[in-house]
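FAQ

Q: What does a record look like?
A: Structure on top, sequence underneath. For example:
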C-alpha cells in the first residue's frame, strides 16, 4: 500500500489543522491506519490509530481530547483533526498502515509508512 500525507503547514498556537492520508494499492479497508509524529531532535512517537471499521480507536494519552482520527474507506483516506495546537505539536507527521489492533499500533511498528507532512505551530 502507498500512503500520501498532506495538510501540514504553519498555524498559530490555538489553531487547528486537518491532515489527510490517501492510500492506494491493496485494499485500504484491510488495514489499521495510524498517525505518528517526530519532533526535531526527538524520536518518532505514536499519535493515533483506527481500525478499518472505525469501531476501535486508540490515542496517545497526552493527545486525547485535542486530536481526532477518522477514516473514509470509500475515499481510501484517513484524517487527523488537530485542535488547540501548541508549539510542542510542531513535528513531521507520518501516516502508517498495519495489521492487528489500534492499540497494537501504539506498540508495534506498522508495516507501511507514508512520507511526512510538516506541521509548525508558532507561539
Amino acid at each position: 500500500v502507498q500512503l500520501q500525507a498532506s495538510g501540514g503547514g504553519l498555524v498559530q498556537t490555538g489553531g487547528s489543522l486537518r491532515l489527510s492520508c490517501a492510500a492506494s494499492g491493496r485494499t485500504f479497508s484491510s488495514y489499521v491506519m495510524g498517525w505518528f509524529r517526530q519532533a526535531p531532535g526527538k524520536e518518532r512517537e505514536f499519535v493515533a490509530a483506527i481500525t478499518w471499521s472505525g469501531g476501535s480507536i486508540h490515542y496517545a494519552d497526552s493527545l486525547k481530547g485535542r486530536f481526532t482520527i477518522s477514516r473514509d474507506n470509500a475515499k481510501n483516506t484517513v484524517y487527523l483533526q488537530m485542535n488547540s495546537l501548541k508549539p510542542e505539536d510542531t513535528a513531521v507527521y507520518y501516516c502508517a498502515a498495519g495489521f492487528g489492533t489500534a492499540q497494537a499500533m501504539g506498540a508495534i511498528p506498522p508495516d507501511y509508512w507514508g512520507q511526512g507532512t510538516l506541521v509548525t505551530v508558532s507561539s
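Q: Is there anything notable about this one?
A: DSSP finds one helix and eleven strands in the chain.
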